[in-house]
Amino acid sequence: MNTHDNLAQLIEHTCKTYASLPAYNSDNKTITYAQVEQQSRYLAQWFQQLSGLVTGDRIAIQLPNIVDYPIVTYAAFRAGLIVVNTNPLYTAREMLHQFNDAGVKAVVILDALTDKLATIIDGTSLETVIVAAAVAEPTLQEGQFSLNELIRLGERLAPLNAHHASRDDIAVLQYTGGTTGIAKAAMLSHGNILANAEQMNERFDDILKLGVETGICPLPLYHIYAFTVNMVGLFAMGQFNVLIPNPRDLDALVKQIEPFEINYFLGINTLFIGLCMHPRFKALNFSNLKMTVSGAALTHAAADAWMSTTGCTITEGYGLSETSPVATLNDFKKEEIGSIGRPLSNTTVEIWDENDEPVADGESGEIVVKGPQVMMGYWQRQDETDKCMKHGFFKTGDVGLKLPSGNYKIIDRLKDMIIVSGFNVYPNEVENVLCQHPAICEAAVIGAKDEKTGERVCAYITLKEHIDEQQVSDYCRENLSAYKVPKSIIFMEELPKSTVGKILRRELRQ
User: Fold this and answer.
1) Which value, to the nearest 10 degrees, does the dihedral of the CA atoms of residues 291, 296, 301, 304 take?
2) Last residue of some domain: 288, 310, 332?
3) Domain assignment present for 242
């Protein structure tokens, strides 16, 4: 993989190497590597010749896990565009911020989301709207394009002009929250993503054989975890990724898995627990399952349940959007549950004190990461970049320590970020939305432990006038993605504050 200058070269080389093999499946539709190459090339030809887009323009992809996602992504890379991954669950408010912040010129969006897009499109710089449908042809509104029609149109155009991006050029703007509550984009270069995929594949090589394995991808491709590991790394190994559009529907998920002999599975704690309680999942044949990888915090309960159900261990890793994402990973079959493993190749992890100096082994401090997978910085936010980058290290905001085994362990967070089922929730964003309600005076948001989701969002609120919990919840659902909506709403006479009037979240945690 090191021989490739950019992701376009990797895609073309991989599709040629594994042309006859199945690459992706979703909703009973399977496409081969040759079909991926052909369809992404036709679409890239349309992007280059008829879309009005030029090298470096940003294109948002707002789709669930359907086969169109990799096709559009690979076409964008091959045409020299920058991909902006967008959560299909975003509210119109969240879409508006992201599209404007990135200066998105085009969007490929699921047909079910176009009504939401229509409410904000006039406030954006979007010029091109391409609509995909999970099953049939989409119903188009005026000025919109059908994705399938563009692929057919691209077939008749002149051959693709090969894109010559360097490893230092931006490939992806991956949005992540911040302690300010404003979502900002990590600039991930072609080199960042290529390096991280290669680092992961060095570990996978001990477990998976090239071009013969089948795996389940229930994690969303718009999340950097599945984006890099499944859509770049495992793809580059010639593996067959079965995409799950809606992992919350466990009945449908199990039904999609049933036809396949599974060799690998990537998931998170919540999903492992849910599946292990599902009677039809427990009845599946797991004799060929040899690798399960977990992102986010893995609990002993989930690891034990998965082992007793499938006979396979879970290997926990650690990473962030800013590290493309993987920084550390446990050794396969020698997992130390409760640890995040050891650094990937060419990656340095250190533990720093409040003066940005390394601490002694065994002492706790902030986890910092240096390596070829660390982002270029935040898009148009040099001030934020300067805060988190020092001497080439990315300051994660997580508190951890080095164990005697050489593995690392997370013990707390410097930041107030809440992680719900692997998704980052930033309290300030939720507080800002709450305080825009005319009946709410002040709000403070914290995370609390949750057996199912790892953490849940709790909101403490003071009121100007009476409203009930249901009204608050309904309001939040209109303005926030479901995982950000507070599960606990507590009304208070006043919030705890410092002498200068700052709300003290730490007192609410106690």
Assistant:
1) 10
2) 310
3) yes
Indicate the number of domains in the chain.
Answer: 2
Tell the residue number behind the tokens 């005026």, with chain if given: 142
- The DSSP result for 126-141, as a single string, is --EEEEE-SSSPPPPP
The last residue of one of the domains, among 310, 327, 359, is: 310
> Which residues lie below 8 Å from residue 54, measured CB to CB, with a gap of 6+?
80
Let me know: does 11 contact 79? Beta carbons within 8 Å: no
The residue segments making up the domain with residue 193 are 7-310
> Regarding beta strands 418-420 and 408-413, do their DSSP bridges make them parallel or antiparallel, or are they unpaired?
unpaired
Regions in the chain scoring below 70 on pLDDT: 1-2, 177-181, 296, 498-502
* Burial category of 340 from C-beta neighbours within 10 Å (exposed 0-12, middle 13-18, buried 19 and up): buried
Distance CA 459, CA 434 (A): 9
pTM reported for the whole predicted model = 0.87
CB 453, CB 67: distance < 8 Å:
no
DSSP, collapsed to helix, strand or coil, labels residue 252 as: helix
On whether residue 374 sits in a domain, the answer given is no
In a domain, 413, yes or no: no
Query: How many other C-beta atoms lie within 10 A of the C-beta of residue 76?
Result: 29
